Amino acid sequence: MTDQLPSPRGADVGRRIGVGLMYGLWKPRVLGAWRVLTTGPVILAVNHSHVIDGPMVMGVAPRPTHFLIKKEAFIGPLDPFLTGIGQLKVDRDTTDRTAITRALGVLESGGVLGIFPEGTRGEGDFASLRAGLAYFAVRSGAPIVPVAVLGSSDRRGRLIKGLPPLRSRVDVVFGEPFEAGDGSGRRTRTALDEATGRIQKQLAAHLENARRLTGR
């Protein structure tokens, strides 16, 4: 499996690029980054309402992160670039076994996997979760760290829909890590459904706390 793993060094390069880009175009305020474990596998579960959510978290997270990104983003020169910085292409319309294997490989090697559990960009409120996050968490045993990305709701100054106004403040709030499983090690459909329910409550609570903390 190791020859299929995305490059940790590439993800570190991506992190450096993200730092420069995000701090150059916006004003990130990062809260709770110390909650991300310094070693071992971690899953970052990120809400998704802005185009920049992935690059923002990739840039400000304390560790290099491999995000599962929809295959539609891997177009033209972005394909080799995203692959080169250690990101994972996933086909959302099927059971993408290659992406699953590589994502599990990231966790098995002690890396950080980034997931948008809502599956696609929307309200960013964690209201509708896919089962993928529960599967990776239960299968790997990796703790989940919820991440809330909160940008300005002011639509003035936006160049692109879904993009915070340039030079506006964007808050990135990392929450307390938690385990998704019930300790039984079960991976049945029922166990994953139960885990998804637990995850949704934790993520929704973190988002509420993050909004209260930041005033967003």
UniProtKB/TrEMBL annotation:
One of its GO terms (biological process) is phosphatidic acid biosynthetic process. SUPFAM superfamilies: Glycerol-3-phosphate (1)-acyltransferase. Pfam families: Acyltransferase. Keywords: Acyltransferase, Transferase. One of its GO terms (molecular function) is 1-acylglycerol-3-phosphate O-acyltransferase activity. Residues 42-152 form the Phospholipid/glycerol acyltransferase domain. The keyword Transmembrane does not apply. GO terms for cellular component: plasma membrane. Transmembrane segments: none annotated. InterPro entries: Plipid/glycerol_acylTrfase. The keyword GTP-binding does not apply. This is Putative 1-acyl-sn-glycerol-3-phosphate acyltransferase. It comes from Streptomyces afghaniensis 772.
